[in-house]
Design goal:
Order of helices and strands of chain B: HHEHEEHEHEHEEEHEEEEHEHHHHHH
Oligomer: heterodimer
Number of strands of chain A: 14
Shape of chain B: elongated
Protein name (chain B): ABC transporter permease
Number of domains of chain B: 2
Largest sheet of chain A: 6 strands, mixed, barrel
Strand order of the largest sheet of chain A: 3-4-10-7-9-8
Helix content of chain A: 40-55%
Helix content of chain B: 40-55%
GO molecular function, one term (chain B): transmembrane transporter activity
Structural class of chain A: alpha+beta
Strand content of chain B: 15-25%
Membrane topology (chain B): Multi-pass membrane protein
Number of strands of chain B: 13
Number of domains of chain A: 2
Distance between the termini of chain B: 28 Å
Subcellular location (chain B): Cell membrane
Number of helices of chain B: 14
Keywords (chain B): Cell membrane, Membrane, Transmembrane, Transmembrane helix
Number of helices of chain A: 11
C-alpha cells in the first residue's frame, strides 16, 4: 500500500491531525520526565543504609532536672546516668545489643563536619564532608555494620565528653566511601586524618563497608556515604540509644523499654515518639518521596488513558465520516485487512510525527527542570522506551475503531448517504 | 434563540454519550488536578502577616572568621548571642526582638496529667507588638521585666484550654523545668504560616505553646533546639548547653515603618560591622543584608520544590486534556459539516452558527469546570489526609475558588472557539453538492 492516499486524506483534516499529534507529543514529554522522576525517587528510597535494619529501634529520651553538661562534675554525673540506662537496656531479655549514638541514618538530625589529611583545614577545597556518629564499642554489632578492614572499637577505646567540649579523637572508623575518597591508593587503616580542622591527629583503625549519614534530604546528597564513627559517649541532658532486639523480638523489646527506663530513673520524659522502630524512621524519612512518586504515577496513568481515549474518539469520528468511502474501497476489491491497515498506518504516521516532536519536548523539559530544580539528565533509554510505549498505545487505541471500519460492508457504496 | 441552541447542543451531546463523557471528564480531571496543586502552592507561598510583612525586616551580619571567606557570599542566617544583644540594646528600629526556640517540660498541678514537653519560644518584650500577636487574656511582659529575668510566661490558647479549661489564667502559676512562672498573658490561637520568624522549626503548621523572656531562659539554662552554625573552635551545644560565642543560633527581627528607616538601618548595620571590626571581633569586611518577610521567605525557598513540580505537572496535564477536548470537538463539528451547510443555505448567518457551536462547547466546558471543582475539593481532602506538615492548611479560599471559576471559563472558551470557528468556515454549497 502506498502512503499517498493516506497523506492526501490527512491533509483534509489538518487541524485534527495537528491537535492529536500535539497531544501525543505533550503526553510523551510529560510522561517521560515524570517516570524519570519516579525512577529517581524509587532509587533513593531503596538505597540500603548499610545497617541491618530488621530488629533495630531507637530510643530518644530526655532527663528532667539533670545537671548541666558544661562543668566536669555535671558531665561525670550525666555519664553515670547514661551508663545506668545502657546497662538496664542491655539486661532486657529481648535485647541483643545496645549502643549510645547521637544519631542514626535517615533520622535527619546530624553532626556534620570535615575530614582532612592536614591539620587546621576546615570546609575548604579538597576537604571531605562527613557526618559523625558518637558511639561506643557496641556500635558495629548493634547497627549491623560490616567491617572490611582493621578492627572494631574495644571498651578501652571509649571516652566520654560533654557535648560542647573539644576533645581529641585519637581513633576513628570510617566508611569505605570515605576511605576511598581520602586515600584513593587504598590502605586507609593506620593512616592519620584530622577532624573538623583540629590540630590533633586521629588514626583510622577500621573501615566499614557502608553507613549512610543521618541526612535523607537533598542537603546530604553529596556526602551520603561519608560517615565517621567516633568511640565517644556524648553527655548531655538528652541521649539516644540504638537497640538491636533478638531476632523477631523487636516489638516485645520496644514495649519493655519505657518501664525499664522509668525504673532506672523516673525523672525523664519519654513520649510516643521516644521509642521508634527503624522501619518507622525509614518510612518518615522517605514519606515525601514515596508520596511524590505515587502522585506522579497516577497522573501519568490518567494522562495516558486520556490520550488513548482521544485517539479512539478521533479515529471513530473519521471512520464514521468516511463510512461511504470505505464502502467504495471495499466494493472496488479492498480486503478487510487493507482497511484495517489503512487506519493503523494512518495512526502510525500521526503518532510518529507526535513522538518526534515529543522527544524534543521531553529533552527540552528535562533541560528546563535541570536548570530550575535538582535533576539529572534524562537517560535516552527513558525517552526511547517512552516513544515505543506511545506508539504501542496509539496502535492499541486505533484497533477497535479500525476494526469497525474494516467491517463496513461493500454494499454501503451503493446506498445514498 | 439561546434556549433553542441549548436544546440543540444537548441533543447533539446526547448523540455521542461516551464521547461527551470523555470530553467532560478530561476537562474536569485537568482542572481538578491544577486547582488542587495550585491551591497548595498558594497556601504555602502565602504571606504570614499580610498587613505588616513589608515593615518587618530580618537583619543579617557576618561575624565569621576570615578563613574560608568568599567575596559576595551570604552572611549567616542567624546571629550570635553577643551581636543579637548588642543590636537589641541599640534599639535603632521601631520594634526589635531577639529570639530562639526550644522545648520545656511542663509539670501540671493536676495529678491527673503527667509532665509533658511543650514547644517554647524564648524572646524579648517587643515580640508580641511587632508581630501583632492577639491576646485573649492579659498582655506580654515588659522590656524591664525581661531584662530582670522575670519568671513570667505567655501561653497559647490550646495550652490554656488543656491546663485551665479555657478560664482566664492570668496571674496563675505554671511550673516548668522545676521553676514556677507567673502567667501574664494568653494568646488567642496565633499561628502564622509559614512560621516565618524561625524556619528551623519546620516551615508550616508549627506553633509554640509557651513564650518566655530570653534572659530568663539564659539564666535558667532551658533547653533550646533549632540550628546552630559555628566556626573556629565553636561548639554547637546540645539540650541545655548553650552554643559558644562563635556560633549563630538566634533570630533577630526588626520593624521599620518606612523605606527611609530601612535604608538608615542598613547603614547602621554596616557601621556596627565596622565598629566590631575595629574592636577586633569581626574579621570580615561589612557584609549585611536586610530583607523583609516575603523576601526572606523567598530567599530561604520555604515552598518545597516538590510542590512546584506537582503544580507544573498538573498544568501540563490540563494542557493535554484541553488539546484532547479541542481535537475531539473539532472532529465532531466537522463531521456535522453537512448539517451546518444546510443551515447556512437556509439563511443562518455565520454568527448564528458560531453561537450555536460555542454554546455546545460551552456546555461541555461548564460541566467539566463544575466537575473540576468537585475533583479539586476531593483532591484537597486527599492532600489533608497526607502526613506532611502543611497538609492541614490545604483549603480552598475565595480567591482560589474564583481562580477555579476563571480557569474553567477560559478552558471552555479555548476548547470551543477554535472548533466553532473552523466549522463556520465551511462553504455551504460544497456540502450540499456532495450529498
Amino acid at each position: 500500500m502506498t502512503l499517498h492516499p493516506i497523506l492526501a486524506a490527512l491533509r483534509k483534516h489538518k487541524a485534527g491531525v495537528v491537535l492529536i499529534s500535539l497531544q501525543i507529543a505533550l503526553t510523551l514529554a510529560i510522561v517521560c520526565n515524570a517516570v524519570f522522576i519516579i525512577g529517581q525517587r524509587v532509587e533513593r528510597v531503596n538505597r540500603p543504609t548499610g545497617l541491618d535494619e530488621n530488629d533495630l529501634f531507637l530510643v530518644s529520651q530526655q532527663w528532667v532536672g539533670a545537671p548541666g553538661g558544661d562543668d566536669p562534675a555535671g558531665v561525670e554525673k550525666l555519664d553515670v546516668m547514661q551508663r545506668e540506662d545502657l546497662t538496664a537496656l542491655r539486661n532486657l531479655p529481648d535485647v541483643a545489643s545496645v549502643a549510645p549514638s547521637n544519631s542514626i541514618p535517615l533520622l535527619n538530625s546530624s553532626w556534620t563536619g570535615a575530614l582532612s589529611l592536614k591539620s587546621d583545614q576546615k570546609f575548604e577545597k579538597g576537604i571531605t564532608r562527613t557526618a559523625y556518629y558518637f558511639t561506643d564499642e557496641h556500635a558495629l554489632a548493634t547497627l549491623g555494620l560490616r567491617l572490611v578492614a582493621g578492627r572494631a572499637f574495644t571498651a578501652a577505646d571509649v571516652q566520654h565528653q560533654g557535648a560542647r567540649d573539644q576533645r581529641n579523637r585519637p581513633i576513628v572508623i570510617v566508611t569505605q566511601a570515605l576511605a576511598d575518597k581520602l586515600f584513593p591508593q587504598g590502605g586507609a587503616v593506620g593512616k592519620v586524618v584530622y577532624t573538623d580542622g583540629s590540630s590533633a591527629p586521629s588514626t583510622v583503625i577500621g573501615v566499614v563497608a557502608r553507613l549512610q549519614t543521618p541526612a535523607s534530604g537533598s542537603f546530604g546528597n553529596d556526602f551520603a556515604w561519608n560517615s565517621t564513627l567516633v568511640p565517644t559517649r556524648l553527655d548531655a541532658n538528652f541521649a539516644r540509644y540504638v537497640v538491636r532486639a533478638k531476632p523477631g523480638r523487636r516489638d516485645a523489646a520496644m514495649h519493655a523499654v519505657p518501664a525499664t527506663l522509668y525504673a532506672v530513673n523516673p525523672m525523664r520524659v519519654l513520649d510516643d515518639d521516644s521509642v521508634k522502630s527503624f522501619a518507622d524512621i525509614r518510612a518518615s524519612a522517605y514519606r515525601a518521596d514515596v508520596g511524590m512518586a505515587i502522585l506522579m504515577g497516577v497522573v501519568c496513568l490518567i494522562l495516558l488513558c486520556v490520550t488513548a481515549a482521544g485517539i479512539v474518539g478521533l479515529t471513530s469520528f473519521w471512520v464514521g465520516q468516511r463510512h461511504r468511502q470505505i464502502g467504495v474501497r471495499r466494493a472496488l476489491g479492498a480486503r478487510k485487512v487493507d482497511i484495517l491497515h489503512y487506519f493503523q498506518i494512518e495512526n502510525l504516521l500521526i503518532a510518529g510525527a507526535g513522538v518526534l516532536v515529543g522527544v524534543l519536548l521531553a529533552i527540552g523539559l528535562n533541560m528546563w527542570l535541570m536548570s530550575h530544580y535538582e535533576m539529572a539528565r534524562i537517560p535516552l533509554l527513558y525517552v526511547l522506551t517512552g516513544v515505543l510505549v506511545m506508539l504501542a498505545i496509539g496502535q492499541a487505541a486505533v484497533f477497535v475503531p479500525a476494526r469497525r471500519a474494516s467491517n463496513v460492508p461493500p454494499v454501503v457504496a451503493t446506498r445514498a448517504a | 434563540m439561546f434556549a433553542y441552541y441549548l436544546d440543540l447542543a444537548l441533543r447533539s451531546l446526547k448523540r455521542n454519550k461516551a464521547l461527551t463523557a470523555l470530553m467532560v471528564l478530561a476537562i474536569a480531571l485537568g482542572i481538578g488536578a491544577s486547582m488542587t496543586t495550585l491551591t497548595v502552592l498558594h497556601v504555602l507561598s502565602g504571606d504570614p502577616l499580610p498587613d505588616k510583612s513589608g515593615q518587618l525586616y530580618y537583619p543579617q551580619i557576618d561575624p565569621q572568621d576570615i578563613k574560608g571567606m568568599m567575596p559576595s557570599k551570604e552572611p549567616p542566617d542567624q546571629v550570635t548571642l553577643i551581636d543579637g544583644l548588642n543590636l537589641l540594646r541599640a534599639g535603632r528600629a521601631d520594634h526589635q526582638a531577639l529570639m530562639t526556640g526550644g522545648s520545656v517540660p511542663v509539670q501540671p498541678e493536676q495529678s491527673s496529667l503527667d509532665p509533658f514537653y511543650v514547644e517554647a519560644r524564648y524572646t524579648t518584650a517587643d515580640f508580641f507588638a511587632m508581630f501583632e500577636a492577639p491576646f485573649l487574656y492579659g498582655h506580654g511582659w515588659t522590656a524591664a521585666d525581661g531584662e530582670a529575668k522575670a519568671r513570667e510566661v505567655v501561653i497559647a490558647r490550646s495550652l490554656n484550654d488543656k491546663l485551665f479549661a479555657g478560664a482566664d489564667s492570668v496571674g496563675r502559676t505554671l511550673r516548668m523545668a522545676g521553676t514556677s512562672f507567673r502567667i501574664v498573658g494568653v494568646l488567642d490561637g496565633w499561628q502564622p504560616n509559614p512560621h516565618f520568624y524561625d524556619l528551623n522549626t519546620g516551615s508550616y503548621a508549627y506553633g509554640e505553646q509557651v513564650f518566655l523572656p530570653l534572659q530568663t531562659m539564659l539564666e535558667l539554662r532551658l533547653d533550646r533546639n533549632g540550628s546552630s552554625d559555628c566556626w573556629g573552635n565553636g561548639g554547637g551545644g546540645v539540650g541545655n548547653i548553650l552554643p559558644s560565642d562563635t556560633c549563630v543560633w538566634l533570630q533577630f527581627w526588626v520593624q521599620l515603618d518606612n523605606p527611609a528607616k530601612a535604608a538608615a538601618y542598613r547603614e547602621f548595620l554596616i557601621h556596627y560591622s565596622q565598629d566590631q571590626q575595629a574592636l577586633g571581633r569581626f574579621q570580615r569586611a561589612p557584609n549585611v543584608r536586610l530583607r523583609n518577610v516575603m523576601q526572606w521567605l523567598d530567599h530561604q525557598m520555604v515552598v518545597p520544590n516538590d510542590v512546584r513540580l506537582q503544580t507544573g505537572l498538573a498544568f501540563g496535564f490540563l494542557l493535554v486534556c484541553l488539546v484532547n477536548t479541542v481535537g475531539l470537538m473539532l472532529a465532531k463539528f466537522m463531521r456535522r459539516a453537512a448539517e451546518l451547510g444546510v443551515r447556512r443555505a437556509l439563511g443562518a448567518s455565520r454568527r448564528a452558527l458560531f453561537a450555536q457551536l460555542l454554546i455546545e462547547s460551552g456546555v461541555v466546558g461548564l460541566v467539566g469546570g463544575c466537575g473540576g471543582l468537585l475533583l479539586a475539593l476531593c483532591g484537597l481532602w486527599l492532600v489533608r489526609q497526607r502526613p506532611s506538615d502543611y497538609a492541614a492548611l490545604a483549603h480552598l479560599d475565595p480567591s482560589m475558588l474564583f481562580t477555579t471559576f476563571v480557569l474553567a471559563v477560559c478552558a471552555t472558551l479555548l476548547a470551543g472557539l477554535l472548533p466553532a470557528w473552523r466549522a463556520c468556515q465551511i462553504a455551504p454549497a460544497l456540502q450540499l453538492k456532495s450529498n
